Each structure stands twice: as C-alpha cells, then as structure tokens.
Amino acid sequence: MNFDEPRVVLLLALPLAGFGLTALVGRRLHQRAWVISVSMIVVTWVVAMVTVYQTLFAHAYGDGGLHFTLYTWVPAGNFHIDFNLAVDSLTAVLLIVVTTIGMLVHVYSIGYMAHDNGRWRFFAYLNLFMFSMLLLVLADNFMLLFAAWELVGLSSYLLIGFWYNRKSAALAAKKAFIVNRVGDFGFALGIAAVWTTVGTLNFTTTDAGPGVFQLLPAALQSGQIAPWMMTGIALLLFMGAMGKSAQFPLHVWLPDAMEGPTPVSALIHAATMVNAGVYFVARANPIFVQAPQAMVFVAAIGIFTAILAASIAFTQKDIKRVLAYSTLSQLGYMFAGLGVGAYTAAIFHLITHGFFKGLLFLGSGSVIHAVHEEQDMNKMGALWRKIPITHATMLIASIAIAGIPPLAGFFSKDEILGESFKNGFVWVWAIGIVVAVMTGFYMFRLMGKTFYGESHVDPHVLPNVHESPRTMTVPLLLLAIPTVLAGLYLGGGIFFGQETVLHQWLGPIFEHASETLGLHDAPFELAGIDGILLIIGAAAGAIGVAFSLWLFGLLDLGGERRNRIEAITNRLRPLYTASVNKWWFDELNDLIFVRIGGAVARALWWFDVRVVDGTVNGIAALTQSTGRGIRQIQTGHVQNYALGIAAGLLVMAVTYVFVIAR
Amino acid sequence: MTQLVSGLPILTLITFTPLVGAILIAFLPKERLNWIRWAALGTALVAWVFSLLLLTAFDPGQSGFQFGEVADWVPTFGIQYKLGVDGISLALVVLTTTLTWISILASFAPIKERVKEYMIAFLILEVGMTGVFLAMDMFLFYIFWELVLIPMYLIIGIWGGANRIYATIKFVLYTLVGSLLMLVAILAMAYTYQANTGTWVGAFDYQKLVEFGFDPTLQFFAFAGFFLAFAIKVPMFPFHTWLPDAHVEAPTAGSVILAGVLLKLGGYGLIRFAVPLFPQAAHDWAPLIIVLSLIGIVYGAIVALVQPDLKKLVAYSSVSHMGFVTLGIFIFTEQGLHGALLQMIAHGILTGGLFLMVGVIYERTHDRTIAKMGGLAGVLPVYAAVFGFFVLGSLGLPGLAGFVGEFVTIVGAFDFYPWVAAVAALAMMLGAAYLLFMYQRVIFGDLSDFLKGIGHHLTDMTRTEVVTLAPLIVLAIGFGVFPGLLLQLWQGPVNDFLAHVVPGALALK
Amino acid sequence: MSHSLDAYLILSALLFGVGTFGFLARRNAIAMLMSIELMLNAVNLAAVAFGAFTPELQAHAALIALLVMAVAAAEATVGLAIVIAIYRNRRTPLVDEYSSMRE
Amino acid sequence: MISIDANTILALLPPAGVALLALLVVVVDIAWPGRDRLLVVVGVGGLAILIAVVVIVGPLPGIGLLAGAQEVFGGAYVADSLTVLLDLTLMAIALLTILFGPDYLRPRGLPTAEFAAMLLFAITGGMLIAGARDLLLLFLALELLVLPGYLLAGYAKRDGLSTEGAIKYFLLGSFSSAIFLFGLVLTFGYTGTTNIREVAASVSTLVGTNGLTSLPPALLMGLALLTTGAAFKIAAVPFHYWTPDAYQGSPTPVTGYLSVGPKVAAFALILRLFVDALGSVKADWTPFIVILAAVTMTLGNLVALSQDNIKRMLAYSSIAHTGYILVGLAAFGAAPVGSAAEQNGLQAVLFYSVAYSFMNLGAFAVVAALQRRPGVTSQIATFAGLGRRAPLLAALMLLFLLSLTGIPPLAGFWAKWYVIQAALQVGGWLTLLAVLTVLNAAAAAFYYLRIAVYMYMRDPAEGAPPVTLGGQTRLGLALAAIGTIAIGLIPPVTIAVIAMAQSAAQALL
Amino acid sequence: MVPAGVLLADLGLPPFVPFLNWAWDDLLFLLLAGIMLAAAVFVVVGRDIVRSGVAMMLAFAALAGIYALAGAVIVAAAQVLIYIGAISILVLFAIMLTQSKSGPLSLVFHRQAWAGLLAAIGVAVLLIISVVNTTWPLAVTDRLVSVTNEVALLLFQDSLYIFLLQVVALLLTAAVVGGVFIAKREDSADPGEPAPATLERVRNPVDAAAETPQ
Fold it and tell me: Which residues of E touch A661 (CB under 8 A)?
C-alpha cells in the first residue's frame, strides 16, 4: 500500500484538526489548552520528516517529485482548478524549516503563553498557521497557493492582533493584512494573466496535464506572447511576493507586526511566512528566468530593501523591531539572490535565516519575559549573567547572522554575494557587502545594549530577572544546533570542492533556470575568486561586529560609551534622524492612505449623499414642488374654473378652425 | 427520490407553500405569538425541505429547464402559468428558502410587535422571491417581481428604524420606476412577437421569446427597460442610493433578505432575461455597464470606508460586491458568469450573515454606530469570532464562499480586458480595508464607554442566534472549499447563456 | 335679413357670447344661472334657425328646442335648490366666496 | 305607429328597470317613511335581480338570449355588448354605493330614500348613454346622469362643504352642458340628423381622404364644443376643475359614486361620440386626446402628491386615472384603421373603466366606513394606525390602493397593463405616452403608499375611537374587494372581462 | 298657418319699410334682436339682480318673437310658458329668497371679468366665423312656414321622441324629488357635522387627532 499521498494529506489534516479541536474545546482545557495543538504539530513534524526523508534521501519521487490531486476545487468550465499537492525537493527543504521551527515555537509557547488566558486561541491560531503554511508549500497550482497565501495572511492577522485590547496590536494586524492585500492585488492579476495566457494554473506538467512552467516559456518561444507580457506577468506575481515578504515599499507592515506575541514573530514574521515570497519566486523560477528585466527588478528591490532596513535597524530601541528590520534586510538578501539567479543560495539563506532568526526572536522573547515584558533595549543591559542560556544561544545566532564563519549565515550569505558578483551583478554585491557590515553592527548593538555594558533595568524588576522555564530554553538550545551546523552541512561542500548538499537537493529544480540564464556551473574555486569573495564577506561582517563592540561593547565603560555614541550620532545627524524615523515611511503612508485617502473617501461619500442621492431626492422634491405649484391653479373660484374651461375650448376651437382646417 | 419528486408539482409546492402558511397564520389569534412564530418557521422549513427535495432530484449540469409546469392563464394574450428550474434558478431558490427560515428564526426575539402581520409579510415575500426565480412566463415573472415589493415595503416601513418611512418609500418608488419601465419592455416584446407570428400564443413565453430574435431597435430600448429595473435592484452605481437607506432602516431579517435575495433578483434578471432576450443590445450596452460596474466596485468600497453606521457600511459593501456580479455577467466570458453566479450566492450567505451579526449587537445596544463600539472581543468572544468569520468571508478569504466568485470573476475579466480586472481587483484591497477597519474598531480595543453603559445586557450570542448563523457558516465554508457543488449545478445554463453572446466580441485587445 | 340663416346664427352666437361673459364675470350665483339660461336660449335659437331653413329638420328642430327647455327647467330647479341650500349655510349668494375648498 | 316588440322590451329592460326601481324607491319611501333598511333591500335586491337578468339576457357571447346588437327607435338606442358591459358596470357601481352609503348617511341624519333614488336616476342616465346612438338621447341621458349628481353632491345640505361642492359642480356642469349642446346643435344643423350613425356617415362622406381639412368650420367648431363638454364630464385637464372641490365636499359615498359612475358613463359618451360618430376623423382629434391624456395624468398625479385630504387626493387621483383611460382612446385614435391595435385601444378603455370602478369605489367605501362616526374628518391623518385599530379595513384599503397603484396581480394592474400594451401596439409617439404612463404610475405610488404609511407605520392618535363597520358596508367592501381581486387573479373572471371588453369593442367598430 | 310676412302684408302696409328699403319682417327681426341682445347684456352687466331678472324675462320674450318670426310658433309659445312663465319666476323667487341686492361693481363682477370678456368675445367671434364660413348643405335660401302639427305628430308618433319624452319626464321627476329635498328647510338640529365647524376645519386644518371625538 502506498502511504505517500495520505502522508502528505496528513501534513495538512493534522494541523487543521488541531485548529478545529482547539477552537472548539480548547477553552475548556484551561491551562492545558496547548495539549492538542502541540501534539498535533509534533506528529506533523514526524510525518514531515518521513516525507523529507523519502524525498531528499530516499529519492522516492524522482526529480519531478510527487504530484497528486485530491479533488477538483473550481470546475468553472475552462477554468478548471484542482486541489492538487506536490512534494519535491524544494518543498521538502521548506518542510524541514517550517515543521521544525514550527514545532519548536509551539513548545516554546507553552511556557511563553502560560499566563495568558487567551492561550487556547493562541494555539488554535498557531495550528491554523501551520496548516496554511504547509498548504502553501505543498500547493501545486497558483490558485491553491494563492489561497494558502491568503490564509497565512489571515493567521498572521489573527496572531498580530492576538492582544486585541491593545489598540496598537489591532492596528498592526489590520495594517499587515491590508498591505499584504496590496501585494495580493498584483498577485491575483498575475495569476489571472497566467491563466489567460496558458489556460491552466498547474505548476508543472504532470500526468494530469500540462503545467504553466512548461507552457509559458513555450508560449514565449512560439511568439504567442510578447516578452513584455512575460515581464508583466513576472512583475505582477512578484508584487505578491513583495507584500508577503515585506519588500520595499510594502515593508511597512512587518515592524508593526511585532505587536504580536514573540513566538509568533519568530515563527511567522521571521522564519516561515515572510519567506513565502522567496519560496514562491524560487518556485516560479521558470517564469522569472524568461523575464530578465523582472529579474533585475527583483534584485534591485531586494538589495535596496536590505540596505534600507539595515539603516533603520541601527537606531531602533525596541529589541523586536531591530530584529524585524533585520529580517527585512535578510529577506532583501534573499531576493537579491533570486534576482541574480542564485536560487539555491537564496533558499539556502532562507533556511539558515529561518533558524538563526527564529532563535533570535525566541531569545528576545526570553529576554522580554525575563525583564517583565519590557521591549525597550534602553532599559536592559548587562543581562548575560542573569539569563545565560538565552545569552549564549542569542550570541551564537548573532554571530551567525553577522556572517562570521563557520556558522550558518556565513555560508548562505556569502553564496548569495558571491553568485551576484560572478553573475555580473557587481552593484548588488557591493551593496551587499555594505549591508553585511551594517548587519554585524546592528546585531551587536543589540547584543551590547541587551546583554553587556551597564544595566538599565528597572531596579524593581532587576531582582526578579531570571532564566525562562525549560519549555522555552530547550527550543532555544535546539535551534542553536542548526544555527551552528546547518551552514556547514548544507554548504560546507565548498571547502571540499564538492557540490554542496543543498545543490544536490535543489539542482533538479533550478537546473533549467541556470541553463536558461546561461550560467555555467563552474566549480567552486576556494583558492580563486570565490575564496577572495568569501574573505571579503567574512571580513565585512567582522568589521561591523568589531565596531559595534567598540561602541556598545562587552565592558562597563560608563559615560565614555555615551560620549562615543553621541559623537558619532552628531556627526551623522541627518542620517540618524532618518533612521530613527524609519525614513518617514509610516508618515508617508499615513499621508497618502489615511489623510488623502480618507479625504477622498469622505469626498466621495459627500458626492454620494449630495449628488447621486441628491439627484434622486431632487427629482422627487421637484415633482412634489411642481405639484404644489400646480395646485395653486385650483383657486376655489368657480369663475376661474370656468375661464379655464373656456380657455381650453378656445385653444381647441382655434386649432380646429384655423390650424387644422387651413 | 427523483421518482417521488417528479410526480409532484414540486415548483408550485415550493412557491406557494409559504402562501398557504401565510393564510393559515392569518387565522391564528394574534395574541398567540409563539404559535405564529413556530407556524411561520414551520412553513418556511417545509418550503425549504421541498427545495432540498428538488435539489436531490435535479439533474445537474444539464441545459434547459427541468420540472416544467405549464397551464394556461389568460389564453387571450398567451399568458401562461409556467414554471421551470435550471441550475441557476435552483441555486437561488435554495438560497432563498434557506435564508427565509433563517430570517424568520432570527426575527423571533427582535420582532415583538405585530408578529402576525410580520410573519405573513415575510412568507408572502418568500412567495414572490421564489416565484421570480421559477417563472418562465414574462407576465408571471413580472407579477412575482412586483409581489416582492409590497411585503418588503411593509417590513421596512412597519418594523424598521426611526427614518423607516423615508427609506421604505424610497425603496418602493425607486424599484417601481424601474420595474414599470420593464413592464413596458415586456409588453413591447410581446407585441412584436404577436405582430410577427400572428398569434399571441407564446408572446409571454420566455423560451419562445428567447428563440425569437428581436430587431435591433426594439432590443436596444427593451434592454434599457429591463436593465434599469435590474440595475436598480442589484443595485448598480448610480442607482444604488436606496440601498443604504433601506438597509439602515430595515429590521435585521429584512436586511438579510434584502441583501441575501432581493439584490440577487437583479442579477438573476440580467442573466436570465436581459441578455438572452436581447443579445445584440446587451453587447451594445455592455461597455457602459462594465464601466458602471467598475465604478460601483471601487466607489462602493471607498465610500464604505468612511461609513459611521455598521449597516450602512455593509450596504455600501454590497454595492461593491454586486458590482462583481454585473461585471461578471457583461464581460461575456464563462469565468465571468461563473464568478458572477458564485458571487451572488456567496454574497447572499456572507452579507446575510453580516447583517445578522449587526442585528445581534443592535439587539443588545440599540445602536449601530461604529464609533460607539469597541472591545467586544473581550465580553462577547463567540460573537467576535462569528463576526470575524463573516468579515473574513466577505473580504474574500480563500476557503470561504466569497473568494472563488471574486477570483473567478477577476480571471474572467482579465481574459476580457486586463485593465478591467485590475480595477476590479482593487476591491480586494479596499474590501479588506473597510471591513477590517470596522472589525478592528468594533471588536478590538478596550470596551467602549458606551458599551460599558449597557452593562449586563451585553450578553454573548444566544443559542437561537447561533442556530440561525450556523447554517450560513456551514454553507460559507462548504461553498468555499467545494465550489464545484454550485459550479457544476449551473454549468449547463452557463453554456446556454454563452450561446447567446459572442464571447470576446467586446474584447478590445 | 330675417330670411338669412346666418343672421339667426350670428344672433345666436352673440347671445351665447353674452351668456358666456355673464357666467365668467358675475359673482352672484343666480346671475350665473341666468347667464346659463341665456346660453341655452342661444342654443335654442340656433336649433330653431336650422329648422326654419331646412325643410326636413323643421319639426325636429322645434322638438329639440322644446326638449332643451324642459332640460333647462330641470336645471333651473336643481340649481336654485342648491343655491337656496348654500345660501342657508353661507348667507351670501356670491359664488367666489364659496372657496373653502381649493388647491 | 309605435310597435313595441319583445326585443325592444328586452333591449330597454336594464335602463327601464333601474328607472322603475328609482321610482319604486320613491314610492316605498312615501308609503313606509323612514324604513331605511327596506329601501336598501329594495335597491340592492332590485339591482341584483337586474344584473342577473342582464347577465342572462344580455348579448354576451355564448350565453345571451339576444342575438347580436339590438337596435330600437330607429337606431337611436342600441343594446349591444358595449351597452351590456357598461350597464353591468354601472349597476354594480350603484349596488355597491347603495350598500355602503346608508351606513355613512344614517348617523348624519340624511335619508336613504332620496339618496338611493337620485343614484338610481343617475345610473339610468348613464345606462342610456351607454346605448345611445342619437345625439339628442345622448344629451338628455347625460343630463339625467348629472342632474341627480349635482343634488347628490349637495346631499349633506347642512354641510357648507357639501353645498359648496354641489354649486360648483352644478354651475360648471351646466356651463359645459350648454357648450356641449351648442356643439350638438351645430352638428345637427350641418348634417341634418341627430342619429349617430347618420352623422358618422355624413362626416365620413365629407372627409373623404383629407381628414378634417375638408370639414366645414361649423362642424369643426361643433367638434371642439362637443369635445369640451365631454372632456368636462370625464374631468380631463384643463376641464377638471370641478372635480377636487365637488369630490371633497360631497358626502363620502357620493364622492365614491361620483368618481366612478359619471366617469364610466362619460367614457361611454366619449366612445359613442368619438368612436361611433367621429371615428372617421380620428386622425384629427387624436392629437388632442394624446395631449389631454398626457396632461391629465401628469397634473392629476402631481397635485395629488401634496394633498392632505383623502377625498381631495383621491379626486386628483381619479383625474390621473382619466388620463390613463384616455391613453387607451389615444391608442385607438392613433392606430391604423381596421388594425387590431384599434380594437385593442377600445378594449383598454373598457377594461380600465371596469377595473377602476371596483377599486376606486372600494377605496371610497373604506373612507366612508372610517367616517361612519360623524366628526371624523377626511384628513389623511385619520388613517393613522388603522392597521391596528381595524386591521381588516386597513388591509382592504391597502388592497384597493395597491390596485390603484397598479401592483400585480390586482385589477388595477391589468387595467394599466391593458392601456400600456394598447399604446405600445401602436408605437411611435404612443410609446412615449406609455412611458409617461408608467412614470406617472410610479409617482402615483407615492401618494397611494402614503396612506399605507399612515395606516401601518404611524401610531393611532391618542384615544382614537374604535372603528365599527355596518353590515351593509361589510358586504359592499367585500364585493368591491372580490371584484378587485377576481378581475386580476381569477383567470376565468379575467378572461370573461377581457372577452366582454373585446366584444364590446367589436360592437363599436 | 301663414308666414309672418304674409300676415304683415295683410295689414296693408307698404311692402318695404319706408326710407330704409327693408322688408317689414326684417325690421321686426332687427327690433326683436336688438331688444333681446340689449336685455341680455343688461342681464349680465346689471348691478341690481332683480332688474337683471326682469331683463331676462324681456330677453326671453323678444326671443319668443324671433321664434315666431322664424315660423316656430309652438316653440315661441313654449318659450313664453316655460321660460317666462316658469323659469323666470323661479329665478325671481330665488333672488328674493337669497335677498340679493344691488351693489358696487366689485360685488357684481369677479376680478377676472376682463378676461371673461375676452374669452366670451373669442367664443362669439369663433362661432360667428365658423357659421358664416359654412355652407349649410341642407339649408334652403329662404325660411319656411310654420309646421306645428308636424311637430305634434312627430312628438307623439315617432317612437324616438316618445322615448325622449319619457327620459325628460324622468329628468324632471329626479330634479323635483332631489330639488325639494335639497331646498327643504329642516329645523331639527343636525347631529352630523355642523357647517361652520366644517368650514373652520377646512380653513385651518388641524391635527385630526385632536378632533376625533372621544
């Protein structure tokens, strides 16, 4: 008996069941509201790992992967959309990230949410998210992916607004959803364009029928569609990715999304959901490679977001916001990678970033927990002794993100930068290096302000600061493992002159793209150009870290540190102001959408009431007043009436005698 | 089952069961409120069961009409009592019978005055609505069409809010203007038929008229008459202004039926009558209608953004949503029509649900001002969840009914002309904006002072309220996950429709 | 002149005009009633005139005139009864003061 | 010598019967003074018997004893199917009025005897008009119709308004009679006959193919004078001035009668005059009828919108209905000679008259019933809360109002349907007239529904007394309601009325 | 019967009026027409309504003369009997009963009298134009002699006129029955709407609620 398909379905069914059950009975479980949900996810993880094994290691489904259809979802005549799922190596890689971090976050949440009365809701939402996210990576057609895309948006909305009585949370949730919808606007149109062009939305050609990834390039080749159309489709689709992955200018929702509980930030807004855009662009690589301008655009947006977000991360005082901007920046890297054709590298960074950023967020949650829900880094400091496990794991993650070898970030980031350089995108590489410096700087600014230097913790709170419970620290520790090792395992092959593990896995997926782009698969030259680039990259990170440590360093320097910071701040005042104000994007949005948009809406309402409805009522009023006017002729005087009759007679008689008869 | 049903005049049974119930209720003593209520609910349930029987016996996906019933009425003019059902009307009939019993159930608590008259009006309303969907004779159709008007007039006017009289008169007059012009068109059509064939036989018979093929001039004006009637009912911009007033003043159940079924009458009319009868004129008028639909979609959504009143907001959202219906119809693509139909059903379910939700809170606070609300999630968790469900459904969340209709329409529109799809898709953003804006202000945040003042009356949803909403939730999910249930039902009629139009004849690409 | 049909008809038209003027101009109900009588007489005159100049119509015309007189008598009866009744209410015969109902 | 055969008796039976009934009422009152109920029994019973006799004897297609049209007195009077239809209508009007009148009169100390006698005399006049094919008879019958009408208008002789209405009605009526008479004499002088068929023959030989152009000025002047006189009787604008005042002032049952009886009879006159006598020059009078129709319905409706007195409002409404009926006549006029449309226009006039009689009389019966208690004014405000105070009465009023509005499937709808289709069948300008008709109908809905608003949507005045209905009134209301519903909804009745209208129209052509 | 012209001739008068070259009957016609029109004008413009009534009788009398001149002797007789003998008397009684007196012009004429004059002139002129411009096909050039017995025969032998006579009888019956009722004074207090109250109500419509008897 073949368990492959049921197993995949189980991946969806378990979290969905967890959601349903928790939503229905979770409230009655009180403290143990997590039981169903966490156990479901643990089982899901196991199932996922089996699937991953089958796919990546046992190679059970071949290069094409496993494709199957559950039922016909939308049989609207020609618009025939199946509910079909697929597992290939790209999916499997994502499964690892999603289920592993998902499971750890679930476990972590047991402790983190222990004192919140809404925890049943929280776990229900988390399971809903897991379902949606898994559907997203398993979906085998555009529309189903779009559905999952929206559903993860929903979970995100629900979880950001989890503490609904906080106005800021509610607003942030709304903002996240609406900004995502802006991206989805383009995404939906892109999908519509795809269907209009090729008449199907299935990703690849399978036994069930042809797929977009084969048909669309063929259409271009045969001249059925013009190149600009291909670019248009790619850009529309990319718009969705921009929204979901918070790329400039749709990045504004992600920092606000930190209003959600920290595990949510870790899972959704760092490790998984925000990567959906990256995943999608990678998945749709056959479309993008046919649209070179779109590729450049993707790279430009990515790298610009990277530097923009990094610049803002410099000055944020909220620990989670720093991480959020960092996430933006890292996502920018990934898109830069996708744009330059370094698909594997981008996915590599997705994986490593998922682990270390998840770890950072969970760690920050632990910190926040320790200092009694304080998120302002100016009210922290010198905590490393008080919460050692948290500190240790976060330090590892910070080193990783800074790109210091041999931790995970180093491999993935440098692969992106190296590929950019080698594929001819030197400007991407140059900016990337600058961002690498900045990354090192702001990450260690965070570490410094939080764990080192002088303590600014509220004196009342200080005595009670303690390490988090084991449900929280264990996930931290578990996440630290891949943070250290994933890079080596997946990308360490470069040191041995071999094809890396990840390249082996994803090769079949991106092979065709590389060929189309004309990228020769040159062997890695540790002693040549690659090595130089590697060193530059690592050095950039190290410079940033060093400078940061000098400013926010390990030692207690008292006033001296403040002087250093102020000196630099003053010298860079305009940049500093811009950074603190996040380049005024919120203000700009407020102006455009709240003020101008509101004014337009109110004007239209006025138009509706006064002009449209006014016309309707005006006609009625005119009728009425005409009637009132006419009734005046009924004077009550018989003589007047008779005169009226006589006049009528005269008109008629004159007409008959003089007009008609003549 | 099919055997059982085919022996019965099932369509007549569905249509006139409520009338029988109404007559029975007329003989109940008016003090016996519960007898009256249960009798009304029972009647509506019987009609519902009949409609479900029909559903089971129906052969889906077929072209043409099934279960036809025909009898001469006024042979002098070829007027017949002729009923028939196809996939489109079947779906709408079931929607009608479902929403009717839900509405009646939802009226148990709020309607305390003149219950007898209310229930009678409601059941007669159901007769009219069902009849419109089943009538196969233009004359009969018109009669049912107008029959809908009066009960609704009374329901808004008697059991409505403070400004109910203004609203109800506006509703009736506005609708009447349109429908009377449609009457002129119907008669002109019948005459042309009679003049050309020399016989009155079939002059009002829908099927014969469809095959007849009218000359372009008549088509042009007759279409205008039909279109105006339907556009007002849908309602399309700029004929929509009666809707916010009517919704705001109508009692909850009235709003549910208004949004859930009455607006569908317009869409149904366009699909069933306006286009197949006058295909040439439909093509001539289509560009204008498409533009108006697009304006309606965007305009309704933008105006909804700044509405202070919950019902008004939902009303304007209806203008936006129904814009998809008219858009979907007049782009003359298969996807467009599928989407329009699906959107009609989905809008009926979801907006009906939204109005019920507004009704629930109105029942407790006697207010609907968004600014006075806030923080309901804390005190009414079930309410918040169910409300959230309908809000999400309404903004087109995948997995719920609203999504597929909207999406398929956009795909169809893109096939027709990409910019049209782009404008229509703006509603995805705007819809999310106004609905979530409203949801955030009503449900999230701290409990508002106004609501604190309500005190212990602010209770969570009662069992009855949950029961009324549960079917809608089930349907919303059901049609979201398995839209094929509906799409396959009306594939045949959709093909028939497309046979009348020239797909792509309008395409400007 | 008295042998010309037109003369009679013109006389009839003039009488009709006088009656019309009286009806349109007078305020007193009875004066208006009298004006109507003048108009009816004008009709009779026209009828008689036609009779006088058309052999086949002579007897018919006379009968028309007689019947019109009877009608006039009936009208006068009814009219005066109504005048008396309203006079009892209003204490005035001026018709334009009966304008409680207007517009 | 005079020879009276059975057919003459049969032909004259209906008007003679009613005249005898009138005399009988006078005699009975003299013999047994003050026996109101007996008078009603005599009047109603007699009318019922006569109606039955007419139905059996009349030249109804299929069931009549008389074969075809029966001419008597050298063609001065004809008993054809038009006569029968109008006789039946007029007798029904009389019957209903006698049923609901006394309940109103009795509390005001007004005798039933004179009321019934006057009514029957007037109806006799109307019935004679219906069969008159002689101008002289037409005039005398007309006087017999209106003279009792003046007296009835002033029936509440101690009421200043009643006498005021009566004198206005009388003065203007006499004025118009004189005008009419002059026209009659001019026609007589020119054609040398008063027989309508002979006049028609004379006119048609004169006109040849040139229409009115070839008519001598005297005949044209006569036509203008006749038209004025006739237009006055049907209360067409601008000859309508008497209507509001006379209707408002008259005792309510009289108003009810005035709004239908003289109108139906005057339309009979118009049919006899314009169709029978002047049919050959219809091309020339049609433009006037078109303009009269348009102006009449529009003015009637517009002014009715702002009336606060129910009787006055219904007066203006009756003016508007005159306009609608004239549309049928206009359709006859504008249709090509000998076409089906021509006949259809006449059918529309007749059908409308019949339907209108029932519904308008019904509405007045409700008003009269409401005003049974002296002191209840005619202000619309007296209807406030009638839906609660007297649900049945309110429901009936709603029924009549809806029928007047033209809501299907009531009689009034069919009536409007008929005139609109007649106009549409002709096409051209008449199409615009049809559109104007429906727009007017929509505007009229406003003031009809305003009554419904008062009845159902406003609370009754503090301490408003209960409404009690007399037994006779109940019967009258029931009959009017049955008529209104049956003509619209019961197919055999609808078909029968259509068939009667058809055969009556054929008799005219 | 003999024509009026012949009668005049028997008086031994010259065939034409001296100096004017008019036939005597023409003179008579003109005289009678002049008297009638003058009297009629006085009826409508006279300030004293009683005198108007008397003038009306004069006009009727002159008209009777014209009828006789036109050979309609029986109509002339009926004119004297019915109009002068019955209707005029009725009118005069009504004048007495309503105590109408003479008064200033403003009491006599309505404000719109000038417009009425224009309309009346218009009607008269139109009538004159139309009759003058018409060639009456049946008319002979000279007037005929009287035919009283033909009238009688027609009236009592032609079934149509018998029928019309019945209708007139009905008409008069109805007028009398109703007229008597309306004109009859009733002393008993009216339990219904008292007239003044009605008028008040119409002039100052107030909320009916306040009025509805409790």
Answer: none
Confidence of residue B324 (pLDDT cuts 50, 70, 90): very high
- DSSP E strands: which ranges in D76-131? 77-79
Is the model's pLDDT at B222 over the cut of 80? yes
Please state the ipTM of this predicted complex: 0.90
Top pLDDT among B260 and E198 is at B260
Chains sharing 3 or more CB pairs under 8 A with chain E? A, C, D
- Among A128, A237, A129, which residue's Cα sits nearest to residue A190? A237
Closest Cα to residue D495, out of B73, A378, A639? Answer: B73
pLDDT at res. D67: 56
Distances (CA, A) of A306 to A309, A324, D387: 5, 12, 73
Q: For A653, which of E110, E120, E126 is closest by C-beta distance?
A: E126
Question: Per-residue pLDDT tens for B470-501?
Answer: 999 999 999 999 999 899 889 888 988 888 88
Q: Cα(A154)–Cα(B398) distance, rounded to whole angstroms? A: 10
Distance from C-alpha of A630 to C-alpha of D319, rounded to nearest angstrom: 14
CA distance B147 to B387: 33
Q: How far is CA B509 from CA A185, D29, E151, in A?
A: 22, 89, 91
Chain E positions in Cβ-Cβ contact with residue D111 (cut-off 8 Å): 181
Q: How confident is the model at residue A554 (pLDDT cuts 50, 70, 90)?
A: low
Contacting chains of A (3 CB pairs or more, <8 Å) are B, C, D, E
- Residue D79 pairs in a beta bridge with D70
3-class SS string, B234-246: CCCCCCCCHHHHH
Interface test with C, best of E26, E91, E108, E162 (most C CBs within 10 A): E91
B241-251 residue pLDDT tens: 999 999 999 99
Instruction: Answer whether residue B397 shows pLDDT above 50.
Output: yes
D347 Cβ under 8 Å from any chain B Cβ: no
Q: D182 in contact with A at a CB cutoff of 8 Å? A: no
Report the alpha-carbon distance of residue A542 to residue A529 in Å, rounded.
20
Q: Are strands A79-87 and A66-76 parallel, antiparallel or unpaired?
A: antiparallel
- Our CA-based measurement puts residue A623 at a distance from the nearest CA of chain C, in whole angstroms, of 16
Q: How confident is the model at residue B156 (pLDDT cuts 50, 70, 90)?
A: very high
Contacts of E37 in chain C (CB under 8 A): 11, 14-15, 18
Would you call A178 and B410 a contact, using CB atoms and an 8 Å cutoff?
no
Chain C residue numbers touching E40 (CB-CB < 8 A)? 15, 18-19, 38
Q: Which residues of C touch D194 (CB under 8 A)?
A: 60, 64
A 172-191 near B (Cβ less than 8 A): 173-174, 177-178, 181-182, 184-185, 188-189, 191
pTM of the predicted model as reported, rounded to 2 decimal places: 0.91
Across the interface, whether the CB atoms of B418 and A193 are under 8 A apart is answered yes
Q: What's the rounded mean pLDDT across residues A365-375? A: 84
pLDDT of residue D246: 92
The interface residues of chain E toward chain C in range 9-38, judged by CB-CB distance below 8 A, are 22-23, 25-26, 28-30, 33, 36-37
What CA–CA distance (Å, rounded) separates C60 from E161?
Answer: 9
Q: How far is D214 from chain A (nearest CA, A)?
A: 7
In whole angstroms, what is the distance from residue B457 CA to residue D470 CA?
A: 49
CB pairs under 8 A between C and D: 117
- Answer left, alpha or beta for residue B366, where phi above 0 means left and psi between -120 and 50 means alpha: left
Task: Please give the residue that has the higher pLDDT: either B184 or B8.
Answer: B184
Cα angle: B35, vertex B37, B41; to 5 degrees: 115
The tens digit of pLDDT for each residue in B278-321 reads: 998 998 899 999 999 999 999 999 999 999 999 999 999 999 99
Does the structure show a pLDDT above 70 at B110?
Answer: yes
